[in-house]
């Protein structure tokens, strides 16, 4: 998760913008505003340029893959007013970009999001396509589960990757499950993805899974207290993993023992908790999967090691 220090002097108004005639002008202006306001990034994009471009294209209702020539297209007065309004909401109100546009992307897949869920961002986008390689070659994934599903995005990625699988999506938050239901319907996967309101597996019917996946709340509580404004606008229960970040993970791994096929695997995304995980669960011999950026923050555990 990308983080930034809170701005010591929050921006209270945007500078004049009457001189900004093109999208290129507005992008340069926005990058300066992002810097002045010390806006936190990482929820939608990792650079001010990319996030502002995304916001502006969505505000103008132009395709995200627009030809670069649109950067020099003259904007109408109404379009300039709309860009100023959206930039003010982002920079002054510090509303995350995903909440402004009501969407987030993981790869080619679009998901509806709002303040009831955290904005999807996960290394599972690159790792889910590799998970079958950790199962016996003769196994077809028939049952998978996403614990702490939030918007349902990872459960849906599992369903897209494993077309013969039934996927359970679990969350304790009824509000988050409302958002997940929107996404399950939008992806036309209501027959294969089932939502459950449950504290981990407490209220979920007994199923033996081939893949148990989770991007649980893992931030230590003290860190959550000091997150940038944008991240504090996300649901705290989706981020806060307790004093050491391991509260949900401990319960999940205990309950996982009775929820896996003999060949099954648990895969957990845990942010910066690798040292704490290795210490707490040394006997499980956690296998850390390589990610493209080298963070390697996802661990895999085979069912046999949980016995």
Automatic annotation (TrEMBL):
GO biological process, any: methylation
KW Transferase (keyword) present: yes
Pfam family, one: MTS
GO cellular component, one term: ribosome
Keyword vocabulary terms for this entry: Methyltransferase, Ribonucleoprotein, Ribosomal protein, S-adenosyl-L-methionine, Transferase
Phylogenetic placement of the source organism: Bacteria, Pseudomonadati, Verrucomicrobiota, Opitutia, Opitutales
Domain named Methyltransferase small: residues: 131-219
PANTHER family xref list: 50S RIBOSOMAL PROTEIN L3 GLUTAMINE METHYLTRANSFERASE, RIBOSOMAL PROTEIN UL3 GLUTAMINE METHYLTRANSFERASE
Source superkingdom: Bacteria
Protein name in the entry: 50S ribosomal protein L3 N(5)-glutamine methyltransferase
Gene Ontology terms, MF aspect: nucleic acid binding; protein-glutamine N-methyltransferase activity
SUPFAM superfamilies referenced in this protein's UniProt entry, alphabetically: S-adenosyl-L-methionine-dependent methyltransferases
InterPro entries per the UniProt record, alphabetical: DNA_methylase_N6_adenine_CS, HemK-like, Ribosome_uL3_MTase, SAM-dependent_MTases_sf, Small_mtfrase_dom
């Amino acid at each position: 998760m990308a983080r930034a220090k809170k701005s010591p002097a929050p921006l209270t108004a945007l500078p004049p913008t009457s001189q900004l005639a093109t999208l290129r002008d507005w992008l340069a202006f926005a990058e300066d505003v992002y810097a002045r306001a010390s806006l936190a990034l990482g929820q939608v994009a990792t650079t001010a340029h990319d996030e502002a471009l995304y916001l502006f294209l969505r505000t103008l209702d132009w395709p995200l893959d627009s030809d670069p020539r649109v950067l020099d297209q003259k904007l109408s007065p109404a379009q300039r007013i709309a860009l100023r309004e959206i930039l003010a909401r982002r920079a002054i109100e510090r509303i995350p970009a995903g909440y402004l546009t009501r969407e987030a992307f993981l790869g080619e897949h679009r998901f509806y999001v709002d303040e009831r869920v955290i904005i999807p961002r996960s290394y599972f986008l690159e790792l889910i396509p590799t998970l079958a390689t950790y199962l016996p070659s003769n196994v077809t994934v028939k049952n998978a589960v996403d614990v702490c599903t939030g918007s349902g995005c990872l459960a849906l990625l599992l369903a897209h990757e494993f077309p013969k699988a039934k996927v359970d999506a679990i969350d304790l938050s009824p509000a988050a499950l409302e958002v997940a239901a929107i996404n399950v319907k939008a992806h036309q996967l209501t027959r294969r993805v089932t939502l459950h309101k449950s504290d981990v597996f407490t209220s979920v019917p007994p199923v033996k899974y081939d893949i148990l996946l989770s991007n649980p709340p893992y931030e230590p509580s003290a860190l959550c207290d000091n997150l940038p404004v944008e991240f504090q606008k996300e649901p705290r229960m989706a981020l806060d993993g307790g004093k050491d970040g391991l509260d949900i993970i401990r319960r999940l791994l205990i309950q996982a023992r009775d929820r896996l096929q003999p060949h099954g695997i648990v895969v957990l995304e845990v942010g910066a908790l690798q040292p704490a995980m290795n210490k707490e669960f040394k006997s499980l011999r956690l296998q850390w999967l390589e990610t493209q950026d080298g963070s390697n923050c996802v661990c895999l555990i085979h069912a046999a090691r949980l016995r």
